[in-house]
Amino acid sequence: MRDFSFDGLPLMAPGAVWLVGAGPGDPGLLTLHAVNALRQADVIVHDALVDAACLSLARPGAVLEFAGKRGGKPSPKQRDISLRLVALAREGKRVLRLKGGDPFVFGRGGEEALVLVEHGIPFRVVPGITAGIGGLAYAGIPVTHRDITHVVTFLTGHDSSGLVPDRVDWASVAKGSPVIVMYMAMKHISEITANLLAAGRAPDEPLAFVSNAATSRQSVLETTLGRAAADAASAGVSPPAIVVLGEVVRLRSVLDWLGSAQIDSASAGDCTA
Fold first, then answer.
1. Which CATH number fits domain 132-270: 3.30.950.10, 3.40.980.20, 3.40.50.10190, 3.30.365.10?
2. The whole model's pTM is what?
3. Is residue 71 pLDDT above 80, yes or no?
4. Thinking of the domain 17-129, which architecture would CATH place it in?
5. Which residues are catalytic?
């Protein structure tokens, strides 16, 4: 079989930055534009959620720079990362900023793009499959189903200060969205679930944690809103993880096409995610 031809796809220009989503983990979920960028970039500035299998597609000689941000651990400041992209572009490099998921869905891509605009750096945005959709699909959980929900809310579990976002109207979200998908929620899961319970969500409503979604390390903890914090602690669930609340979680029992590892909440204390 001959190699796939990338004829007709855009060329990366020296001095330009591409903000590219790598998807939730599986390199098969990379877009053609993303693979095209990996095969051209001089420097790849990647975050902690980009799977090594995706980085292995980089062209020989490309420089890999880690710029991962992890909650509670030493991390580069966002402004420093943005200015690093500017500096590399001004050196005439073809710069690929590679992010897990989608750069514009809780990925700080908008912040980086604004800095590039501020400094007159040309850029391109390549969307990726966000973990809140692709990662849940790999766990057998559809975010929509016309017999269950026509509304989905995506929210982040912490703001730029690292605290639970005070701009989220938890009462309105709880009442108005049958399905809630939460990014970066592990650190404050006790407070978040308490907010949702206080707003009227049922304690026995199904909830799932999908850890290391769409990778060989994927595991799923199915539990309920009322037990979520305790079960996650007992099971040792840790980031990166997507949290989904709603009746669509029940569909996993028949839609788990991948046959991925599952942690039974009843025996969570004996399992490690």
1. 3.30.950.10
2. 0.89
3. no
4. 3-Layer(aba) Sandwich (3.40)
5. 47, 69, 184
